[in-house]
Amino acid sequence: MIVSIHISAEKGQVAKVVLLPGDPLRAKRIAEEFLTDTEQYNAVRNMLGYTGTVTLPDGRRVRVSVQGSGMGMPSLSIYANELFHYGVQTLIRVGTCGALQEHLHSGDLVIAQGGSSDSNLNRRRFKGLDFAPLPDPNLFVSAVLAVRERGWQTAIGNVLSTDLFYADHAPEEWKMWAEAGVLAVEMETAELYTLATLKGRRALSILTVSDVIPTKESMSAEQRETCYGRMVEIALASAFAT
Ligand code: HPA
């Protein structure tokens, strides 16, 4: 029996590869759409987790889990820690982000090459010094090749993981990050990349632009529905690249 506070699975119930949307109901939707022979292994705090089988385009049948992470780095950190405790090797975040660059559009994919952050988590871990949170290089390269093969509009670069979705105290601060070339803001990637690196596991964030901060463009209802399919396809192509 594995002791884990927020995930109540039996040993072996969680697959080695886990897709990690923030929203637990999105985890349910992904499980319903993409997995067969599906088993729900977690409902603690309604943070739903599922394991099932996926048939890849080359015919291989693989086990995959989908787990909600909640919003923000402290929440993601709890679930990622516990998933690693269950022996998970590969964690791929699939989520949305706010673009900081005018040339990006809602619905564009973003592959996070690095996770900048305004959080205090790594300052505590690294005694005030700087650590560069990076994805697993093989997952990253495979994801880039997969989007290029499909010709999907994709931005590749740095993202900002913020602790404050509502930054009323500094409404212009995003411009500092934009000028440093940061593509988009979300709330989880820096912690995912740091933790995976420290635990010797593989991680990647694949995001879709839900809104563009400088132009105030935002996703259509249809884009919101279809964007997860593309992220899941790229996540599976990179997790199971040969
Ligand atoms: N800020 C933080 N996280 C986000 C945003 C945003 O504007 N859009 C989607 N996730």
Give an overview of the whole structure.
The structure is a single chain. Strand 2 and strand 3 form a beta hairpin. The chain has 7 helices and 10 strands. The protein is globular, with a radius of gyration of 17 Å. It has one domain: 3-Layer(aba) Sandwich (Rossmann fold). The protein has helices spanning 24-34, 73-85, 121-125, 137-150, 174-179, 189-199, 221-239, and strands at residues 17-20, 36-42, 49-55, 61-67, 90-99, 109-117, 154-161, 184-186, 202-212, 217-218. It has a 5-stranded mixed beta barrel with strand order 5-8-7-6-9. The protein starts with 16 loop residues before the first strand and ends with a helix. Residues 96-98, 162, 165, 185-187, 210-211 line the site of hypoxanthine.
Compile the SSE list and pairings.
Layout: E1 17-20, H1 24-34, E2 36-42, E3 49-55, E4 61-67, H2 73-85, E5 90-99, E6 109-117, H3 121-125, H4 137-150, E7 154-161, H5 174-179, E8 184-186, H6 189-199, E9 202-212, E10 217-218, H7 221-239
Parallel strand pairs: 1-4, 1-5, 5-9, 6-7, 7-8
Antiparallel strand pairs: 2-3, 3-4, 5-8, 6-9, 9-10
Helix pairs in contact: 2-6, 4-7
Bound molecules: hypoxanthine (HPA).
Dominant shape = globular
> Alpha-carbon distance between the termini?
33 Å
Strand order of the largest sheet: 5-8-7-6-9
What's the CATH class label? Alpha Beta
SSE run: EHEEEHEEHHEHEHEEH
Strand content: 25-35%
- The CATH topology is given as Rossmann fold
Oligomeric assembly: single chain
Unreliable segments of 5+ consecutive residues: none
Count of all domains: 1
Question: Which structural class do the helices and strands define?
Answer: alpha/beta
